[in-house]
Amino acid sequence: MSDRWHRDPLRYLAFAAIVSTVVYYVHFSGPSPTAPYEIPDFNPRELLQPEPGAMHIVVTGGAGYIGSHAAMVLAGQGHAITSRISGACMDAALGLVDSLTVKGTKHPTEDGTCVRDYVHVMDLVSAHVTGVRHLANPPPLFNIGTGKGVSVKQFVDACRKVTGREIKVVMQEEARPGDYAAVWSEVGKIKRELGWSANYTDVEEGLRHAWRWREAHPNGY
Protein backbone atom coordinates (compact mmCIF):
# COMPACT_ATOMS: atom_id res chain seq x y z
CA MET A 1 0.00 0.00 0.00
CA SER A 2 2.90 2.34 0.77
CA ASP A 3 4.11 2.44 -2.85
CA ARG A 4 0.60 3.13 -4.16
CA TRP A 5 0.11 5.88 -1.59
CA HIS A 6 3.27 7.72 -2.67
CA ARG A 7 2.36 7.41 -6.34
CA ASP A 8 -1.16 8.80 -5.98
CA PRO A 9 -2.01 9.95 -2.42
CA LEU A 10 -5.41 11.49 -3.24
CA ARG A 11 -6.76 8.16 -4.37
CA TYR A 12 -6.22 6.70 -0.92
CA LEU A 13 -7.00 9.71 1.27
CA ALA A 14 -10.64 8.93 1.99
CA PHE A 15 -9.72 6.23 4.49
CA ALA A 16 -8.49 8.76 7.05
CA ALA A 17 -11.59 10.89 6.53
CA ILE A 18 -14.00 8.05 7.11
CA VAL A 19 -12.19 6.92 10.26
CA SER A 20 -12.81 10.28 11.91
CA THR A 21 -16.54 10.10 11.28
CA VAL A 22 -17.33 6.54 12.28
CA VAL A 23 -18.51 6.36 15.86
CA TYR A 24 -21.02 3.56 16.08
CA TYR A 25 -22.42 0.93 13.73
CA VAL A 26 -25.57 -1.15 13.74
CA HIS A 27 -27.13 -3.37 11.13
CA PHE A 28 -29.90 -1.21 9.70
CA SER A 29 -33.13 -3.09 9.09
CA GLY A 30 -34.43 -0.28 6.87
CA PRO A 31 -33.03 2.21 4.38
CA SER A 32 -32.10 4.84 6.96
CA PRO A 33 -30.90 5.21 10.58
CA THR A 34 -33.44 5.03 13.37
CA ALA A 35 -31.45 6.81 16.09
CA PRO A 36 -29.76 10.25 15.96
CA TYR A 37 -26.31 8.93 16.86
CA GLU A 38 -26.32 6.61 13.84
CA ILE A 39 -26.49 9.50 11.34
CA PRO A 40 -22.78 10.52 11.42
CA ASP A 41 -21.93 6.90 10.64
CA PHE A 42 -24.62 6.20 8.06
CA ASN A 43 -24.23 9.27 5.84
CA PRO A 44 -20.54 8.77 4.91
CA ARG A 45 -21.29 5.24 3.75
CA GLU A 46 -24.01 6.51 1.47
CA LEU A 47 -21.84 9.35 0.16
CA LEU A 48 -18.60 7.43 -0.33
CA GLN A 49 -19.55 5.66 -3.53
CA PRO A 50 -16.60 6.56 -5.77
CA GLU A 51 -16.59 6.36 -9.54
CA PRO A 52 -14.91 3.17 -10.76
CA GLY A 53 -11.14 3.60 -10.47
CA ALA A 54 -11.40 7.08 -8.97
CA MET A 55 -10.62 6.36 -5.35
CA HIS A 56 -9.77 3.39 -3.15
CA ILE A 57 -11.46 3.23 0.23
CA VAL A 58 -12.17 0.87 3.10
CA VAL A 59 -15.21 1.65 5.24
CA THR A 60 -15.23 0.56 8.87
CA GLY A 61 -17.81 0.66 11.61
CA GLY A 62 -16.89 0.53 15.27
CA ALA A 63 -18.63 -0.39 18.49
CA GLY A 64 -18.53 1.91 21.52
CA TYR A 65 -14.88 2.37 22.43
CA ILE A 66 -13.10 2.20 25.79
CA GLY A 67 -9.57 1.85 27.15
CA SER A 68 -6.32 3.73 26.64
CA HIS A 69 -2.82 3.31 25.26
CA ALA A 70 -0.32 1.66 27.62
CA ALA A 71 1.76 4.87 27.63
CA MET A 72 -1.47 6.91 28.08
CA VAL A 73 -0.99 8.89 24.86
CA LEU A 74 -4.33 7.74 23.46
CA ALA A 75 -7.65 7.22 25.20
CA GLY A 76 -11.28 6.54 24.39
CA GLN A 77 -12.31 9.85 25.91
CA GLY A 78 -10.50 13.11 25.27
CA HIS A 79 -12.56 15.49 27.40
CA ALA A 80 -14.36 15.57 30.72
CA ILE A 81 -18.16 15.53 31.07
CA THR A 82 -19.65 13.36 28.37
CA SER A 83 -22.94 11.62 27.73
CA ARG A 84 -21.28 8.40 26.52
CA ILE A 85 -21.65 5.64 29.11
CA SER A 86 -17.92 4.99 29.48
CA GLY A 87 -17.02 8.62 30.12
CA ALA A 88 -20.17 9.32 32.13
CA CYS A 89 -19.39 6.48 34.54
CA MET A 90 -15.96 7.90 35.22
CA ASP A 91 -17.23 11.47 35.44
CA ALA A 92 -19.46 10.21 38.26
CA ALA A 93 -16.61 8.25 39.85
CA LEU A 94 -14.45 11.39 39.84
CA GLY A 95 -17.24 13.52 41.32
CA LEU A 96 -17.47 15.70 38.20
CA VAL A 97 -21.20 14.97 38.05
CA ASP A 98 -23.57 14.06 40.86
CA SER A 99 -24.89 10.88 39.32
CA LEU A 100 -25.03 8.63 36.29
CA THR A 101 -28.37 8.22 34.51
CA VAL A 102 -29.11 4.89 32.85
CA LYS A 103 -31.77 5.48 30.22
CA GLY A 104 -34.03 2.56 29.45
CA THR A 105 -34.70 -0.18 31.99
CA LYS A 106 -37.53 -2.11 30.32
CA HIS A 107 -35.75 -3.49 27.28
CA PRO A 108 -36.25 -7.20 26.43
CA THR A 109 -32.77 -8.08 27.72
CA GLU A 110 -31.58 -10.09 30.70
CA ASP A 111 -31.50 -7.13 33.09
CA GLY A 112 -33.71 -4.68 31.18
CA THR A 113 -30.91 -2.34 30.08
CA CYS A 114 -29.44 -1.94 26.59
CA VAL A 115 -26.78 -4.36 25.42
CA ARG A 116 -23.87 -2.96 23.43
CA ASP A 117 -20.43 -3.94 22.13
CA TYR A 118 -17.39 -2.10 23.51
CA VAL A 119 -14.07 -2.20 21.66
CA HIS A 120 -10.72 -1.18 23.15
CA VAL A 121 -9.11 1.84 21.48
CA MET A 122 -5.96 -0.17 20.78
CA ASP A 123 -8.04 -2.77 18.97
CA LEU A 124 -9.71 0.05 17.06
CA VAL A 125 -6.28 1.29 15.96
CA SER A 126 -5.04 -2.16 14.99
CA ALA A 127 -8.19 -2.81 12.94
CA HIS A 128 -7.69 0.44 11.00
CA VAL A 129 -4.01 -0.32 10.40
CA THR A 130 -5.06 -3.72 9.05
CA GLY A 131 -7.85 -2.19 6.97
CA VAL A 132 -5.65 0.41 5.29
CA ARG A 133 -3.79 -2.43 3.61
CA HIS A 134 -7.01 -3.55 1.92
CA LEU A 135 -8.29 -0.44 0.16
CA ALA A 136 -10.47 -1.15 -2.84
CA ASN A 137 -13.04 0.22 -5.24
CA PRO A 138 -15.88 -0.45 -4.65
CA PRO A 139 -15.03 -0.11 -0.94
CA PRO A 140 -15.29 -3.10 1.38
CA LEU A 141 -17.23 -2.71 4.63
CA PHE A 142 -16.02 -4.20 7.89
CA ASN A 143 -17.41 -4.13 11.42
CA ILE A 144 -14.99 -3.58 14.29
CA GLY A 145 -15.84 -4.91 17.72
CA THR A 146 -15.54 -7.83 20.10
CA GLY A 147 -18.54 -9.64 18.71
CA LYS A 148 -20.25 -9.87 22.09
CA GLY A 149 -22.59 -7.63 24.04
CA VAL A 150 -22.41 -6.15 27.52
CA SER A 151 -25.47 -4.64 29.19
CA VAL A 152 -25.40 -1.10 30.54
CA LYS A 153 -25.95 -2.46 34.06
CA GLN A 154 -23.03 -4.86 33.66
CA PHE A 155 -20.93 -1.99 32.34
CA VAL A 156 -21.77 0.21 35.34
CA ASP A 157 -21.04 -2.64 37.77
CA ALA A 158 -17.67 -3.17 36.08
CA CYS A 159 -16.92 0.55 36.31
CA ARG A 160 -17.71 0.55 40.03
CA LYS A 161 -15.41 -2.42 40.54
CA VAL A 162 -12.54 -0.93 38.54
CA THR A 163 -12.70 2.55 40.06
CA GLY A 164 -13.42 1.43 43.60
CA ARG A 165 -15.80 4.38 43.86
CA GLU A 166 -19.46 4.43 44.81
CA ILE A 167 -21.28 5.73 41.76
CA LYS A 168 -24.79 7.04 42.28
CA VAL A 169 -26.97 5.65 39.49
CA VAL A 170 -30.38 6.97 38.48
CA MET A 171 -32.39 4.31 36.66
CA GLN A 172 -34.66 6.00 34.12
CA GLU A 173 -37.32 3.71 32.72
CA GLU A 174 -37.76 5.75 29.53
CA ALA A 175 -35.23 4.90 26.84
CA ARG A 176 -33.62 7.25 24.35
CA PRO A 177 -35.63 7.63 21.13
CA GLY A 178 -34.70 4.98 18.59
CA ASP A 179 -32.50 2.92 20.93
CA TYR A 180 -32.17 -0.73 19.99
CA ALA A 181 -32.41 -3.19 22.88
CA ALA A 182 -29.32 -5.19 21.94
CA VAL A 183 -26.64 -4.43 19.35
CA TRP A 184 -23.17 -5.81 18.87
CA SER A 185 -20.78 -6.08 15.96
CA GLU A 186 -20.87 -9.04 13.61
CA VAL A 187 -17.13 -9.51 13.23
CA GLY A 188 -17.03 -12.70 11.16
CA LYS A 189 -16.21 -10.87 7.92
CA ILE A 190 -13.21 -8.90 9.23
CA LYS A 191 -11.81 -12.00 10.90
CA ARG A 192 -12.36 -14.14 7.82
CA GLU A 193 -11.11 -11.69 5.17
CA LEU A 194 -8.50 -9.63 7.04
CA GLY A 195 -7.51 -12.02 9.82
CA TRP A 196 -8.31 -9.39 12.45
CA SER A 197 -9.92 -9.96 15.84
CA ALA A 198 -10.02 -7.99 19.07
CA ASN A 199 -7.30 -8.67 21.65
CA TYR A 200 -9.11 -6.95 24.53
CA THR A 201 -12.50 -8.59 25.03
CA ASP A 202 -12.89 -8.18 28.80
CA VAL A 203 -14.78 -4.95 29.51
CA GLU A 204 -13.22 -4.71 32.97
CA GLU A 205 -9.73 -4.69 31.48
CA GLY A 206 -10.67 -1.94 29.03
CA LEU A 207 -12.24 0.11 31.83
CA ARG A 208 -9.18 -0.42 34.01
CA HIS A 209 -7.01 1.09 31.27
CA ALA A 210 -9.48 3.94 30.78
CA TRP A 211 -9.64 4.66 34.51
CA ARG A 212 -5.84 4.87 34.78
CA TRP A 213 -5.93 7.52 32.04
CA ARG A 214 -8.84 9.44 33.58
CA GLU A 215 -7.18 9.57 37.00
CA ALA A 216 -4.11 11.09 35.35
CA HIS A 217 -6.21 13.43 33.16
CA PRO A 218 -9.41 14.25 35.10
CA ASN A 219 -10.17 17.22 32.86
CA GLY A 220 -9.37 15.49 29.58
CA TYR A 221 -6.49 16.15 27.20
TrEMBL record:
- What InterPro entries does this protein map onto? NAD(P)-bd_dom, NAD(P)-bd_dom_sf
- Domain NAD(P)-binding positions: 80-208
Q: Which UniProt keywords apply?
A: Membrane, Transmembrane, Transmembrane helix
Tell me what this protein is called.
Putative UDP-arabinose 4-epimerase 3
* Residues passing through the membrane, by range: 12-28
The answer to whether UniProt assigns keyword Amino-acid biosynthesis to this entry is: no
Pfam families membership:
GDP_Man_Dehyd
Q: Which family does it belong to?
A: Belongs to the NAD(P)-dependent epimerase/dehydratase family.
